[in-house]
């Protein structure tokens, strides 16, 4: 059986002396990633309707996908660079803490794919329609469901 040298000798001559240091030989860094097939990981498709109509009367549409139950709607929108806040909200939002109410969205389709309203939403959206949600409090999916959610951005701008 061949012997393995676990140490490498390095000579250092920084101050005139010739000390010898031993360093264990390093193994290459490796990482193992589990890859799930698309059918085993439920995904939620999201469509975001723009807040104001274009000159031709149509609304802009942004799309994104998310793994079910892993992210808040706010984070999905920010990660995909989808406008979330109106002017005031851009300056004065609470950063996702649920304490300002500036990240209001309207769920047009797919309400059953989201979590129930939180206490913060019940407080800030007391007099708003049931379809309105705070993006920072809305979890997209529940790790088991999949489907499509259609979101109206900044619904208070609608006519």
List keywords for this structure.
2Fe-2S; metal-binding; Beta-grasp_dom_sf; globular; alpha+beta; 5-stranded mixed sheet; 7 strands; 2 iron, 2 sulfur cluster binding; 2Fe-2S_ferredoxin-type
SSE-based structural type: alpha+beta
The helix/strand series, from N terminus to C terminus, equals EEEEHHEHEE
Largest sheet: 5 strands, mixed
Please work out how many helical segments DSSP would assign: 3
Shape type: globular
Proportion of helical residues:
10-25%
Strand content: 25-35%
> Rg, please?
26 Å
Strand element count: 7
Instruction: Give start-end ranges of low-pLDDT stretches.
Output: 7-13
Q: Could you report the average pLDDT, rounded to the nearest whole number?
A: 83
Q: Spatial order of the strands in the main sheet?
A: 4-3-7-5-6
First-to-last CA distance: 82 Å
Keywords: 2Fe-2S, Iron, Iron-sulfur, Metal-binding
GO molecular function, one term: metal ion binding
InterPro entries: 2Fe-2S_ferredoxin-like_sf, 2Fe-2S_ferredoxin-type, Adrenodoxin-like, Beta-grasp_dom_sf
Family: Belongs to the adrenodoxin/putidaredoxin family.
């Amino acid at each position: 059986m061949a012997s393995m040298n676990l140490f490498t000798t390095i000579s250092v001559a920084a101050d005139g002396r010739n000390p010898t240091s031993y360093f264990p030989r390093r193994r290459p860094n490796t990482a193992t990633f589990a890859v799930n097939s698309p059918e085993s990981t439920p995904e939620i498709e999201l469509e975001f309707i723009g807040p104001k109509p274009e000159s031709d009367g149509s609304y802009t549409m942004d799309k994104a996908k998310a793994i079910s139950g892993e992210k808040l709607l706010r984070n999905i929108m920010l990660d995909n660079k989808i406008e979330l806040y109106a002017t005031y909200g851009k300056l004065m939002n609470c950063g996702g803490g649920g304490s300002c109410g500036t990240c209001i969205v309207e769920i047009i389709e797919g309400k059953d794919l989201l979590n129930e309203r939180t206490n913060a939403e019940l407080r800030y959206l007391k007099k708003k329609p049931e379809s309105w949600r705070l993006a920072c409090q809305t979890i997209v999916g529940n790790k088991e469901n999949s489907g499509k959610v259609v979101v109206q951005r900044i619904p208070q701008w609608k006519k």
